[in-house]
Specification:
The chain has two domains: 143 residues, Rossmann fold, CATH 3.40.50; 317 residues, 4-Layer Sandwich (Purple Acid Phosphatase, chain A, domain 2). The chain is built from 15 helices and 16 strands. Strands 4, 5, 6, 13, 14, 15 and 16 form a seven-stranded mixed sheet that branches. It has a six-stranded mixed sheet with strand order 7-8-9-10-12-11. Strands 1-2-3 form a three-stranded parallel sheet, sandwiched between helices. The longest helix has 21 residues. With 475 residues, it is α/β, with parallel strands linked by helices. The termini are far apart. Helices cover 39% and strands 20% of the residues. It is elongated. Helix 1 runs parallel beside helix 2 and helix 8 packs parallel to helix 9.
């Protein structure tokens, strides 16, 4: 008897997250997904389009009485293997066999028959237009229009979640656990409310509080829940180390002296070009390196050969390159304040070289430019802001949005604030959606309030001109 690993979704956005970011052999789909406002909806029709794009065979299980809609689906979607009537007990009893036959079936790909897929897309547009015309309520028509808009936007945009500075320690108090739980709940709620299905997620450093094994064990549990809420896979969760990911007990006197002595670009590049010197300086990340190697199962590593990375995706018909940079490799103590840290022109140029063919480049690092030593601050900032469309960082524990413009380029620098920083700072995170074609995007800003039992809300306090917690921008 066949056994299956099954993932379920009861909402349109949750289903989109799973379809968008994971691979499946077969899908069992109800045309009427649960919608709190109105039980009579057609969300599942939109999901057919997503499944077709991913070339997933579909078995529809539905009680929709409209034979016209069912006939239209069968004639339009070659990836629909069977439509099963919920009210037919005999058909339901044979569902398992139907699923297995669908799993073994084969359908043409977009590459094999692009004209066919264009025809199907055109039929889909006519089908949805007809459904809107025949809608029995204003809510149903608006709901379909909203889903159609989301469907179009999702194909043309790149969307990501940005969290930072989790500072996960051995603190397992109820308050700490409640803050993390509410963060996950709010992320899922905002994805649904704004129809922002993330393609990937960034964590820009300070995952742990002091780089210890127990702290990363807690991080693994948190990341598991984050991936479940967003529908992302481990390959699409991109992290970089911060100063709190350094195990300071592993920083020898010699490593501290060497780090403190670096004040010219040539010497910094020579150090980063030498495997032995890198190994000596990167020993401080032993706990972090073990965690990312084990948790990400080879998708992410940190060692003397891979102290940065470049991850590439095909999204919105463009190649997206994410540069994961290490800005904490000389971090050693609480004295690591402004003008004391290094990225290294060598690291930046090496990463940009690997990302040279990408249409969109997004840099991740923990520290803002102002924290870098004077000898490289302007060089690193100029390189990244000229060659990348976005630079994401953390460390400052405050949200900060800066649009860098020059005669040659423009870049949005986004400071993620701290997503779990205790009472001293307001916890924050953001969701970003960007349309590479138009150059337009928006950022959903969220802020934690410690009032009462605590709650997440729109961040309308950081900037006077940000309304409803959403910042619109154009690059």
């Amino acid at each position: 008897e066949e056994s299956y690993q099954v993932e379920t979704a009861t909402t349109f956005v949750r289903a989109c997250s799973l379809i968008k970011n994971r691979s499946y052999d077969v899908a069992v789909l109800d045309l009427q997904l649960h919608a709190p406002q109105e039980p009579d909806n057609r969300d599942g029709v939109f999901l057919l389009r997503w499944l077709m794009r991913k070339q997933v065979p579909v078995v529809i299980v539905t009680a929709v009485p409209a034979r016209r809609l069912v006939d239209e689906i069968l004639s339009s979607y070659g990836h629909v293997y069977e439509i099963v009537d919920k009210s037919d007990s005999e058909a339901i009893a044979g569902l398992a066999a139907c699923v297995e036959k669908a799993r073994q079936s084969s359908f043409p790909s977009v590459a094999d028959d692009p004209a066919r897929f264009r025809e199907v897309d055109e039929r889909f547009e006519r089908l949805i237009a007809g459904e809107i015309e025949r809608s029995r309520t204003g809510w149903e028509a608006n709901h379909l229009r909203e889903l159609a808009s989301h469907d179009q936007a999702s194909q043309a945009t790149v969307t990501w979640l940005h969290i930072s500075d989790l500072h996960l320690s051995d603190d397992k108090t109820l308050r700490s656990s409640t803050e993390l739980d509410s963060l996950l709940v709010d992320i899922e709620r905002q994805i649904g409310q704004h129809k922002l299905v993330p393609d990937w997620a960034a964590v820009t450093g300070d995952i742990a509080f002091s780089g210890q094994e127990k702290q990363y064990a807690r991080a693994a549990g948190f990341f598991d829940r984050l991936l479940d809420r967003t529908g992302l896979t481990k390959e699409r969760l991109l992290v970089v180390p911060g100063n709190h990911d350094v195990s300071r007990s592993l920083v020898s006197t010699g490593a501290r002296i060497l780090g403190d002595s670096l004040h010219d670009g040539k010497t910094i590049s020579e150090i980063l070009s030498d495997d032995g010197d890198r190994r000596f300086l990167l020993k401080r990340f032993e706990g972090y390196a073990r965690f990312v190697g084990d948790y990400f199962e080879g998708h992410s590593n940190l060692d003397s050969d891979r102290y940065f990375y470049v991850r590439k995706f095909e999204l919105a018909d463009r190649q997206i390159a994410v540069l994961g940079l290490n800005s904490a490799w000389v971090s050693a103590s609480d004295r690591d304040e402004a003008n004391r840290l290094l990225v290294g022109e060598e690291q930046v140029r090496a990463a940009l070289g690997l990302a040279a063919e990408a249409d969109i480049r997004i840099a991740l690092l923990h520290h803002p430019f102002r924290e870098l030593r004077e000898c490289e601050q302007q060089t690193v900032e100029r390189l990244l802001c000229q060659e990348c469309q976005f630079v994401l960082h953390g460390h400052g524990h405050r949200t900060d949005l800066t649009l860098h413009r020059s005669p040659d380029a423009s870049a949005m620098v986004i400071a993620g604030g701290a997503s779990h920083a205790g009472l001293e700072y307001s916890n924050t995170y953001n969701l970003v959606q960007f349309n590479p074609g138009s150059g337009q995007g928006h950022i959903v800003l969220r802020r934690w309030s410690g009032e009462g039992v605590g709650f997440w809300a729109e961040d309308n306090l950081t900037y006077r001109n940000v309304k409803n917690g959403i910042y619109q921008f154009t690059l």
